[in-house]
Amino acid sequence: MKIKTTEINVKKPDKDVDFFDITGNVSDAVAAADVKEGVANVFSPGSTASVTTIEYEPNLLIDFRRVLEKLVPSDIRYEHEKAWGERNGQSHMRTSIFGPGVVIPIHEGKLMTGQWQQIVVMDFDVIQRNRRIVIQVIGE
């Protein structure tokens, strides 16, 4: 069995929620690992960003922002903010809903995503940052 770990970075502008399509990066990592059957584990090491799969389409991204704001509003005070003085309580809450990563099956050397399914980093933090994403390909 092979295990190959790589990392990518995405740069977040200074906004509340940003989305990054990293499907191509994950596909490249699978090709570089030369794995025909296995899994790609994609993980965000941090507590204010998630990795998920969605249809990466501009109107859906607008919908996501709208729903996130209703589900976990950014205009209320969160108790977490007393700990560090940062206004990112909603960022932590949103991340916990989606989780830190996804596992995608690999078959015949290709990710088994659906036709309209992309692998996406959802960065919920309120500050500009370079976000590290870990891609670990496991298989034969």
The CATH homologous superfamily name equals YjbQ-like
Global structural class: alpha+beta
Main beta sheet strand tally, sense and closure? 5 strands, antiparallel
Q: How many H/I helical runs?
A: 4
Annotated CATH architecture: Sandwich
Q: What would you call the shape?
A: elongated
How many domains? The number is 1
Beta-sheet strand percentage? Answer: 35-45%
Helix/strand layout:
Layout: E1 2-12, E2 18-21, H1 23-33, E3 37-43, E4 49-54, H2 58-71, H3 81-84, H4 89-98, E5 101-107, E6 110-111, E7 118-123, E8 129-139
Antiparallel strand pairs: 1-8, 2-7, 3-5, 3-8, 4-7, 5-6
TL;DR?
By secondary structure, this protein is α+β, with helices and mostly antiparallel strands.
Describe the structure.
The chain has helices spanning 23-33, 58-71, 81-84, 89-98; strands at residues 2-12, 18-21, 37-43, 49-54, 101-107, 110-111, 118-123, 129-139. The protein is an alpha+beta fold and 140 residues long. The chain has a single domain (2-139), classed as Sandwich (Jelly Rolls). A five-stranded antiparallel beta sheet has the order 1-8-3-5-6, with helices on one face. The longest helix is centred in the middle third of the chain and has 14 residues, at 58-71. The termini are close together.
From the structure above, extract its key features:
single chain; 140 residues; alpha+beta; Jelly Rolls; 5-stranded antiparallel sheet; 3-stranded antiparallel sheet; 4 helices; 8 strands; 39% strand
